[in-house]
Amino acid sequence: MHIPSLKQQFQVAFSYDVHFTEGLFNADNTLIRDVLKQDGGAEPRKIFFVVDDGVAAQHPQLMGAITSYVAAHADVMQLSGPITVIPGGEQCKNEPALVQQLLDAVNTYHIDRHSYFVGIGGGAVLDLVGYVASVAHRGIRHIRIPTTVLSQNDSGIGVKNSVNAFGKKNFLGNFAPPYAVLNDFEFLLTLEDRDWRGGIAEALKVSLIKDAKFFAFIQYNAAKLAARDMPAMQYLIHRCAEMHLQHIAGGDPFEQGSSRPLDFGHWSAHKLEQLSNYRIRHGEAVAIGIALDSVYSHLQGRITEAELDQIISVIRTLGFALYEPEMSVHLADAAHPQSMQHGLQEFREHLGGKLTIMLLEKIGRGVEVHEMDGQLVEEAVRKLQQY
Amino acid sequence: MHIPSLKQQFQVAFSYDVHFTEGLFNADNTLIRDVLKQDGGAEPRKIFFVVDDGVAAQHPQLMGAITSYVAAHADVMQLSGPITVIPGGEQCKNEPALVQQLLDAVNTYHIDRHSYFVGIGGGAVLDLVGYVASVAHRGIRHIRIPTTVLSQNDSGIGVKNSVNAFGKKNFLGNFAPPYAVLNDFEFLLTLEDRDWRGGIAEALKVSLIKDAKFFAFIQYNAAKLAARDMPAMQYLIHRCAEMHLQHIAGGDPFEQGSSRPLDFGHWSAHKLEQLSNYRIRHGEAVAIGIALDSVYSHLQGRITEAELDQIISVIRTLGFALYEPEMSVHLADAAHPQSMQHGLQEFREHLGGKLTIMLLEKIGRGVEVHEMDGQLVEEAVRKLQQY
Ligand SMILES: NC(=O)c1ccc[n+]([C@@H]2O[C@H](COP(=O)([O-])OP(=O)(O)OC[C@H]3O[C@@H](n4cnc5c(N)ncnc54)[C@H](O)[C@@H]3O)[C@@H](O)[C@H]2O)c1
Ligand SMILES: NC(=O)c1ccc[n+]([C@@H]2O[C@H](COP(=O)([O-])OP(=O)(O)OC[C@H]3O[C@@H](n4cnc5c(N)ncnc54)[C@H](O)[C@@H]3O)[C@@H](O)[C@H]2O)c1
Ligand SMILES: [Zn+2]
Ligand SMILES: [Zn+2]
User: Fold this and answer.
1) Which of B79, B183, B211, B244 is the most buried (most CB within 10 A)?
2) Mind telling me how many Å the CA of B157 is from chain A's nearest CA?
3) Interface pTM (ipTM) of the complex?
4) What pLDDT digit, counting tens, does each position of B245-274 carry?
């Protein structure tokens, strides 16, 4: 017996808008109203809010503003259940009880595929809320309102969501684009300096591998950005978000292949976060990772000394450290699980066997390589230590 | 301040093959080996098996055959962890502990995005295994080996997966195409008659709304199919699977809109399953639902009496009932939650406010309508009761 195989092939189109605003819940701001009305429905939609407790603490007027806003637009939306505040920061992704609590709410308040499930917070809260929204009823409409620089220009505008499990970061998750992303710059006013600065590292990353003009902007405005200049930050977030979206759309949105070209500076960053027990935050680790791979690129003759100096100078002016002691532990022993260089092996395993690392060919252009010279990595670390 | 919105838009391509075979784990059957090698990898891949206990019980040699097969192809695959047997049937989708057990295995045996997670069983086990595979590491490669008629021609070849929660069917799930589907007809030999027959209802459904020639095939072979003729069943499954795949690819694979055109006969079927506490199985309920909507189509003058007679005759020859007492409970009272007609309202809510029901225009062509006449539904039920 031979029965021919059937070949299934199709494409699925996804689209969503990333909006920028201030005072999202001000009475006269119609953005949320307008976004909800895009679904063409006639009846008021159910809307459910989850808020990062770090945001709630710094914006005590927020809960009242949300309630008033929804009430003022009762023809378009109605609150489903209470506004739910959950712990912010990485810790929330370690809590299966929070996933359960949010799923409970979906069930209790009859939130269906025509309702809206809104997360307001940093990247961690958005990852968790997005995960719940993606699996409840095979996907309910999810609106992200990111409140940190990192989430407004990178983590909150993409298609990934996740929670941690078995002590492993992002063990559970999937790919599920949001219904819309609403970036309100006012939230950024209350960030800690470290979180304000941290998100800038992702913009620096994307500028170095893709856009020399954007690098020049960051270079020119580095001191202003460090001093929390809002217009400079707004431009930075907008441009970084734009490039991040283009990267996703033009590449492999659901990571079906195994290349990860936006991960410049990230092989060591991930490892340093882990080696420091997350004392070093993601953006801080990425800044170091960028410095390291830039020095390495120079040592290999890929970029000039003048280019390297510009990069190092920008990173310092932004207020980032270039070196942390974890970088030197077992430095020469790439096989040691506690060495930074072990991160290369972990990165290769993650990519599925073939190592791909982004280096710099010049400012504004990245180049992929498939091996890293351990001695040169060592030399680069020594150099960063001495700056 | 006005900063322009960014529009994100992209398409994601998905593809997978549905293969047909017999003796999948026979030493000389290279199908699994060939499918795994398609990934182009050089090293042996980790492969993990989950087996429906109904299948394991009826195929006692299966576990040994899997082990020998993998050992014989050690250059291409290696077993990750023990072959895991879980309870089959709807009950497995109600057990959060099973989701946890399978996620545990992913963690313990280091099953990553380059490994294979294989489910062998009926639609329920495949829904559960597919769900775990879709969320672990944001999606690991999932191979489905369906063992019932329904899962080989319908549920196991599509893109949906799910488990139940809060007592609600398919409360958790998402859309995630499999890596491949391997239909082995030998599994069907051990099905209960009711499950053998049940899957035929989905083929009848698709033939009636899309393909008169396929209906003629079922009509001509109805007695053979009822008598468990294997070649007739093989053709039926292949053609039904083909049309189901085309429907998914040509329509709205991830159900982003709100139409569900393949749900002919299903508005009453879902309700009857529920009203009967699942005594009436899905395929049996679908057969009744088809009969009901065919009579209704005739009462509205859409199909001729001769066409209706052909449809009813096929359903009976296949061995299905045309009527169950649950259909008459509160029949005239569509507002009563225990009446079959309440299913119309539930169906509308599920679709998001607008009712869309498929009826027949002729054999082989469906037509969508947006309201149902309660009196005519009543009349159709009375007619089915009297056949
Ligand atoms: N999904 C993705 O594609 C993706 C990409 C990169 C990173 N991430 C994830 O993002 C997370 C990091 O996100 P993050 O950098 O936004 O930090 P975060 O979410 O961990 O938040 C950091 C702290 O800031 C607080 N906070 C948030 N907004 C605030 C505000 N406006 N004012 C004052 N405090 C505020 C939070 O309560 C928290 O304590 C990580 O879990 C990471 O895995 C996801
Ligand atoms: N994902 C989808 O798109 C989709 C579509 C329709 C239905 N479904 C789901 O499919 C499930 C129904 O699937 P089903 O009809 O295959 O039934 P099932 O999975 O419930 O299995 C029925 C019984 O048959 C046993 N069994 C399975 N294979 C056998 C074999 N070869 N020999 C002997 N016994 C065997 C099982 O152990 C079980 O006891 C439901 O949970 C339904 O929700 C999913
Ligand atoms: Zn990053
Ligand atoms: Zn069905």
Assistant:
1) B183
2) 9
3) 0.94
4) 999 999 899 988 866 666 899 999 999 999
